[in-house]
Amino acid sequence: MNDGAEKKSVDYNKVSRVYDTSRIANAETTEKLTRLLRISNNSIVLDMGCGTGNYTFALGRVAKSIVGIDLSIGMLEQAHGKRANLSLTCGDITNLPLSSEAFDGAFAIQVLHHIREKELFLTEAYRVLRRGASIAIQVCSHKQLRTFWFYHFFPKGLDLDLGRMPDSQEIAALLEKAGFSGVGLEICFTDVVVADETPKQYLDKRYRDSISTFAFLSDEEIESGCRRIREDIMTGKAKDIVQKSEYEVANRIGGTSLIYGQKK
User: Fold this and answer.
1) How far apart are CA 238 and CA 231, in angstroms?
2) N or C: which end of the chain has fewer CB within 10 A?
3) How far apart are CA 174 and CA 118, in angstroms?
4) Tens-place pLDDT, residues 208-220
């Protein structure tokens, strides 16, 4: 992580108010999580860093019970608004206020790059899972990040995100170090983290504020990117950039990755 990113932080209570302008629970990811974690109507599942509860709600339709935990009160308030009886806890996922061997599965969606003590996070996940239970962690691999059209307009964001986000191989190694076995990876081809979008949406500050990368960019970098978007929309270049990126995602390397492992 470069110095600029280290000096800034994200106010997730503030972000929570606009977070869902660019986030949904993706159907492909939901299906793969259900299969990888073997979720059934007998399963008790943990959503680690649940945010506004998009996946808590989606997988809660399949599981017997699902618990979402997040450190941001604002995020949890937004999650409660989706379904009043969601089981949500405010807490630190590197020091879970939960019993050992209490869950049949656990998952984390785009969370790991927000955690400094990644080994503690995985040690805690291992502790609260029952023997034979699995964890799945959704990330964007560095290869996937490099294909996203977003970074054509905000190139500094790519450097920042490559520094913030651990690559798939690093996460797999961390899972093995924490004691998980059968570590593997599945690609999601229809999930690029944010909901279906166009470059024009990034001209809206409310939309930009829902994406943590912008918290680490300067005003000048953001304005330069917005200016480039306006110019490329006018010339038609933006459409070509998006189509090339979307082809790579949908047909070659996918938009996100699920790294998974099982407690021995």
Assistant:
1) 8
2) C
3) 8
4) 999 999 999 999 9
Residue 211 belongs to what domain range? 3-263
How many domains in the chain?
1
Per the structure block, which two tokens stand in for 179? 């004691």
Neighbouring C-alpha atoms within 13 Å toward the C-beta of 51: 22
Nearest to 250 by CA among 176, 207, 189, 182: 189
Distance CA 36, CA 125 (A): 16
- Cα–Cα distance measured from residue 27 to residue 229, given in angstroms and rounded to the nearest whole number: 29
Tokens of 126: 């291992």
Q: Give me 185's structure tokens.
A: 């990876």
Task: Assess contact for 93 and 69: CB atoms under 8 A.
Answer: yes
Q: Inform me whether the pLDDT recorded for 85 exceeds 70.
A: no
Query: Tens digit of pLDDT for each residue in 141-184?
Result: 999 999 999 999 999 999 999 999 999 999 999 999 999 999 99
Exposure string for 85-123, b = 16+ CB within 10 A, e = fewer = ebebeeeebbebebeeeebbbbbbbbbbebbeebebbbb
3-class secondary structure, 10: coil
Q: How many of the other CB atoms lie within 10 Å of CB of 176?
A: 14
Q: Is 171 exposed, middle or buried (0-12, 13-18, 19+ CB in 10 A)?
A: buried
Please tell me the predicted confidence (pLDDT) of residue 197.
87
Contact 153, 228 (CB under 8 A): yes
CATH of the domain at 17: 3.40.50.150
What's the pLDDT score for residue 195? 63
